Each structure stands twice: as structure tokens, then as C-alpha cells.
Predict the 3D structure of the following.
Amino acid sequence: NAGVTQTPKFQVLKTGQSMTLQCAQDMNHEYMSWYRQDPGMGLRLIHYSVGAGITDQGEVPNGYNVSRSTTEDFPLRLLSAAPSQTSVYFCASSHPPNLEQYFGPGTRLTVT
Amino acid sequence: SQQGEEDPQALSIQEGENATMNCSYKTSINNLQWYRQNSGRGLVHLILIRSNEREKHSGRLRVTLDTSKKSSSLLITASRAADTASYFCATDSGAGSYQLTFGKGTKLSVIP
């Protein structure tokens, strides 16, 4: 099992550009989520999904879109990147939703 | 908003000593979890304690939960240099919640 994988590991964007952060898991977990981690702020939930075709907003959803067409994949789209979105992004999965979360290695995003 | 808040923000101890970290939260919960994050890596689940449990052990880890005070503590006994990491508590928001909220973390340094 690869667990939770994220690509890319590092990304630099210019303000206004769009991109998609990829997340995949091979554990057949129904629940997947995206967090961002900023210095001194801990992890903040962006969006989550309780199954294919079902997504919902977390604490900081503005500027991000998600979709869940398969159980395995949960991509995060930045529509028009802003410097405030410079952060480390983590994807996680679990089953059931509120129990042990399996985290990916993270994507470090810089927006200039 | 932060549900869980860890205390202290940073802790430095000698190898072999015990390390205690605390977490306070605001609303009723189903369970509370502790995670470890090594520098530059994703979070790793350590232990989960349910709201009807008062104490739980896993190897050198001991977690307590006091729901009347809305607080939890994580004790690492006989610490090792490899325990150097940041430690986070995570809570749900009670029945029907699919969202986990993480605190800002305690940065533990174990000096060999």
C-alpha cells in the first residue's frame, strides 16, 4: 500500500495562476480532507469529502475548489492563486470519518 | 476557530526525562486524538481516546482526558532524541461532525 500520496511536492506560482494539487489514497477510505498548515497556526481544514460525489466546506474554503469523482482521488484546485495561499498543504484520509487520519507527505506551495 | 489548544508552545528536555503536553478544547467531543509531526513531514497518528475513557496507554505514551475540564494531556515517558517533533491534539465537534480541528501544536526538543 502506498497510503496517501500527494503531487507535486513543491510548487511556485505567480499571483493569478491556477493549479491543481493531487491527492490519492489506496486504502478504500470514504473520508478525505485537505488542510493547510501555516507557521504558528496549526492545521486548518479547507474542504472535506465523505464519499464519491459528496464534498463540503471546512474552516477556510475561500479560493479553493474540490471534487470527488472516485473514492481514490480528491484534487484541490486553486482558482486564482494569491500570496495568502502560500502554505503547506496536506491531504488526509480515514474510515470512519473521525477516527485515525492518514496524512500525505504534503505539498509546499509558494505564491509570488 | 481553534477547538484544541496545546500548552506549552515549546518544550525542551533532556533525553530520559518525561515530557507532558496539554490540550484544552471548547465544545463537547466524541473523541480526542494526538498526532506527531516530524519536521517537513506529514502528521502521524499516535493515540485516540474516546469521551467515555479517562486514560489510555500505548507504549511510552499515556493520554488522559478530563471532559469536565475539557482538557487532555499527553505524557511521553523516558524520552529519546527521536521523539523530537511537534505534537498536535485534534478533536471532533460531537455527534454528526465530520470535521476534525487541530490545535497549534507543542514543539518538543529532546536533547541527547
In short: Chain B touches chain A through 25 residues (CB under 8 Å). The CA atoms of residues 28 and 94 of chain B lie 6 Å apart. Chain B has a mean pLDDT of 92. The two ends of chain B are 37 Å apart (CA to CA).
